Amino acid sequence: MAGFDKVVSSYAEAMAGLTDNMTVIAGGFGLCGIPEGLINQIKLMQTRGLTVVSNNCGVDDFGLGVLLVDKQIKKMISSYVGENALFEQQLLQGELEVELTPQGTLAEKMRAGGAGIPAFYTATGYGTPVGEGKESRQFNGRDYILEEAINGDFAIIKAYKADRYGNCIYRHTAQNFNPMAATAGKMTVVEVEHIVEPGEIPPSQIHTPGIYVDRVIQGSFEKRIERKVTAAATTRA
User: Fold this and answer.
1) pLDDT one-digit tens code per residue, 37-64
2) What's the confidence (pLDDT) of residue 236?
């Protein structure tokens, strides 16, 4: 990797420097827009004691769920348990620490971390278990709780397209948490479907500027559907 060129040729190079007990922020929502190959590389590395920040933890055999099999994750900061039976099992058995966070608050905690904002007030969660033990304050007669920003040692991101300088665009709903997560990592690694030359992405279309990105790798994706639902055919007389 020379100069501004951030493209790496292997997943091992992409995740170099990840060690035990680090915090990893992962983009994605369910199985949509997840960095599949980077997650699998963490599985291969057998890195342990991880704190993982993501909307959820994939499913039992795909996405972040593969890291639960060998108990590589020590703590999840997420919004819901989702479709993952192993996640639920480890939570109920006390094998996995889980900090449930409202989705909007989680997104803002990532954004704040990337923007250098240490904390912010939100009304979401006041008067519920989410707000227990947190500082509260009234603004204009409404109660708010103080939420701290999140930063990670690594941020792993899925983008649709990036140039060699790390400028990224996302595709439709696969954007989800990825732009916020990309700003909040000390080391941000982006797995993409297409790598193009600098200048091929119009500046007005860039979602994540390359200043936030440290490494880019070309990925191949299964893009599994979390739950496939089809409608039964109907016959009209």
Assistant:
1) 999 999 999 999 999 999 999 998 899 9
2) 58
User: Which of 30, 22, 16, 25 lies closest to 49, judged by CA?
Assistant: 22
In this predicted structure, the answer to whether residue 232 has a pLDDT above a threshold of 90 is no
Q: Structural domain of residue 154, as residue ranges? A: 11-218
- Residue 235 lies inside a defined structural domain of this protein: no
Mean pLDDT of 68-79: 96
Q: Is residue 87 within 8 Å of 70, Cβ to Cβ? A: no
194 occurs within a structural domain:
yes
Average pLDDT of the segment spanning 99-103: 95
| Contact predicate 182/27, CB 8 Å | yes
Q: Is a pLDDT exceeding 50 seen at residue 142?
A: yes
Report the number of distinct structural domains present in the chain.
Answer: 1
Distance (Å, whole) CA 162 – CA 195: 5
Write the CATH number for 183.
3.40.1080.10
Distance CA 61, CA 58 (A): 8
Cβ-contact 57, 31 below 8 angstroms: no
65: in domain: yes
Considering the domain boundaries, does residue 172 fall inside one?
yes
Tell me the C-alpha distance between 103 and 171, whole Å.
Answer: 20
Which residues lie closer than 8 Å to 122 by C-beta, 6 or more apart?
Answer: 104, 105, 108, 144, 145, 147
Q: Model pTM?
A: 0.92
Q: Is 202 exposed, middle or buried (0-12, 13-18, 19+ CB in 10 A)?
A: exposed
